[in-house]
Amino acid sequence: MTDTIFGKIARGEIEADLVYEDEDVVAFRDLNPQAPTHLLVIPRKSIRTLSEAGAEDAELLGKLLLVAAKVAEQAGIAKGGYRTVINCNAGAGQTVFHLHLHVLGGRALQWPPG
Ligand code: 5GP
Fold first, then answer.
1. Which helix (H) or strand (E) holds 75?
2. Sign of torsion, CA 106 64 92 1?
3. Whose CA is nearest to atom 18 of ligand 1?
């Protein structure tokens, strides 16, 4: 099991601006937001990256998406539109190796992403 800053946030060992938590999932504001609303949704379980999730994580992965939709709604960006992103491994821009889902909204988002 690898430890990361997000593992520490999940265990409450370091502070984050939490917007949601339950027994499996924590959501908090990104420290360096790329949009007016930029939230991160993480499992408490340490999974390094999406490609290392297994069949046993299917329910947890579904829950991450449902929590993303819930926090987007709570943040008031659901109607206007938001984007969910999972960067998987360094070539895609992943810098923190604890699985996390970005929720971005509050501005027009371009497609395709860079
Ligand atoms: P990645 O590039 O791995 O997909 O996303 C990592 C995200 O974590 C980045 O958007 C970065 O701004 C955010 N981040 C890095 N360290 C911290 C931290 O200590 N606290 C919070 N809230 N966000 C962080």
1. helix 58-75
2. positive
3. 31
Q: Which structure tokens are listed for 52?
A: 């290392």
Contact between residue 90 and residue 96 where contact means Cβ atoms under 8 Å apart: no
Whether the CB of 21 sits within 6 Å of ligand 1: no
**How far does the centroid of ligand 1 lie from the alpha carbon of residue 30, in Å?**
6
pLDDT in tens, 41-71: 999 999 999 999 999 999 999 999 999 999 9
Whole-structure pTM value = 0.98
Mutate-to-test residue for ligand 1 from 40, 48, 64, highest number of ligand atoms within 8 A of CB? 40
Q: Which atom of ligand 1 is nearest to the CA of 17?
A: 22
pLDDT (tens digit per residue) in 38-49: 999 999 999 999
Residue 66: φ, ψ to 5° = -65, -40
Bridge partners (DSSP) listed for residue 29: 39
How many of the other CB atoms lie within 10 Å of CB of 105?
Answer: 22
Residue 102 among the catalytic residues: no
